[in-house]
């Protein structure tokens, strides 16, 4: 288990927490899903039955978590560390929530320890179209395919440069605050929807990278995960089915969208599927109340 994990642990009056796997950092302002409405829903217009304990962990090398001193910290290894953390905190069973790399880690938890996962909520399902789907795709699926193609062929240079040369590129991210701000700001704008990520949120996120000096260590996640780990095709993904109750919220500006028909081939127990009219890759910053509502609903279905 990685001993340098930084996490927040917030208590409620119930025994089933949700695990928010943070994809970019961790501090009071940076958590992808607001915590207080989840731990104390009554104070925010909700019902006590939707309360959770919440454990929010920063990925190794992100935020205030330590930078790994060895190779191999991919989503699978991180998920095992997350499971170990939850054991230490006294939770035999728990739910998992995530987006971006947090979705990868949470998905791995559902594959590695499904008997411990009460439910899964993702904003980025890890599934895709099969080659023959192009011939039978409806209009909505065709739009998603075009958006995926646009992302793969022109929208993912951040994956390539960090996946191929993370250390070389990382030096620039820890040397120049203006360069770091331009790099992160561009992607927060490009991958967000309406109304986008506010300048204050962007500044908070950039400052957290800068003051922790984690530009290079976060880039190495792409070297570890995007290039050397995981399934490469929809066929390979479908060969690793997820059987725990799963709920999804898919925002329209997500750069790599997924259609329900594709997801159903891998996720065998989908209990909730929502496609809001607004929002993008950063829903905790863009539409926090909508995200909270869907997390509550998803785990309510999972609880039965």
Discrete helix count: 14
Mean residue pLDDT: 88
Radius of gyration: 18 Å
The succession of helices and strands, N to C, reads: EEHEHEHEHHHHHHHHEHEHH
Instruction: Report the biggest beta sheet as strand number plus sense, adding barrel if it closes.
Output: 7 strands, mixed
- As laid out across the biggest beta sheet, the strand order is 1-3-2-4-5-6-7
Structural class: alpha/beta
The termini sit apart by: 33 Å
Query: Shape from CA axes?
Result: globular
Beta-strand content estimate: 5-15%
Number of E-type strands: 7
Instruction: Catalogue the unreliable spans.
Output: 21-33
What's the helical proportion of residues?
40-55%
Could you provide a short overview of the structure?
This protein has 14 helices and seven strands. It has 304 residues and is α/β, with parallel strands linked by helices. About 4% of the residues have low confidence.
Write the layout of secondary structure elements.
Elements: E1 7-10, E2 18-22, H1 36-39, E3 54-58, H2 75-88, E4 94-98, H3 101-112, E5 117-122, H4 133-136, H5 139-155, H6 157-164, H7 166-175, H8 177-190, H9 199-212, H10 215-225, H11 234-238, E6 246-249, H12 260-266, E7 270-274, H13 283-286, H14 288-303
Parallel strand pairs: 2-3, 2-4, 4-5, 5-6, 6-7
Antiparallel strand pairs: 1-3
Helix pairs in contact: 2-3, 6-7, 6-10, 7-8, 7-10, 8-9
């Amino acid at each position: 288990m990685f001993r340098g994990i930084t996490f927040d642990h917030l208590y409620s009056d119930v025994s089933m927490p949700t695990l928010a796997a943070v994809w970019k950092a961790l501090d009071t302002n940076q958590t992808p899903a607001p915590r207080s409405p989840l731990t104390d829903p009554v104070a925010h217009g909700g019902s006590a039955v939707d309360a959770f304990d919440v454990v929010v962990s920063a990925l190794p090398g992100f935020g205030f978590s330590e930078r790994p001193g060895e190779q191999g910290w991919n989503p699978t290894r991180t998920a095992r560390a997350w499971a170990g953390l939850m054991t230490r905190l006294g939770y035999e069973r728990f739910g998992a929530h995530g987006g971006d790399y947090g979705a990868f880690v949470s998905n791995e938890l559902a594959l590695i320890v499904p008997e411990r996962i009460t439910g899964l909520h993702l904003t980025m399902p890890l599934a895709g179209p099969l080659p023959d789907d192009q011939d039978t795709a409806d209009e909505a699926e065709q739009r998603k395919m075009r958006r995926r193609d646009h992302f793969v062929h022109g929208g993912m240079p951040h994956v390539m440069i960090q996946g191929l040369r993370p250390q070389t590129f990382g030096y620039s991210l820890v040397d120049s605050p203006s360069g770091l701000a331009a790099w992160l700001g561009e992607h927060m704008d490009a991958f967000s929807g309406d109304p986008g990520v506010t300048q204050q949120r962007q500044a908070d996120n950039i400052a957290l990278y800068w003051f922790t000096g984690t530009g290079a260590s976060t880039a190495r996640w792409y070297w570890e995960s995007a290039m050397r780990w995981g399934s490469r095709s929809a066929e390979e993904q479908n060969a690793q089915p997820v059987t725990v109750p799963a709920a999804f919220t898919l925002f329209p500006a997500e750069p790599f969208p997924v259609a329900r028909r594709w997801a159903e081939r891998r996720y065998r127990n989908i209990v909730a599927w929502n496609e809001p009219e607004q929002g993008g890759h950063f829903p905790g910053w863009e539409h926090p109340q909508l995200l909270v509502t869907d997390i509550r609903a998803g785990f309510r279905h999972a609880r039965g």
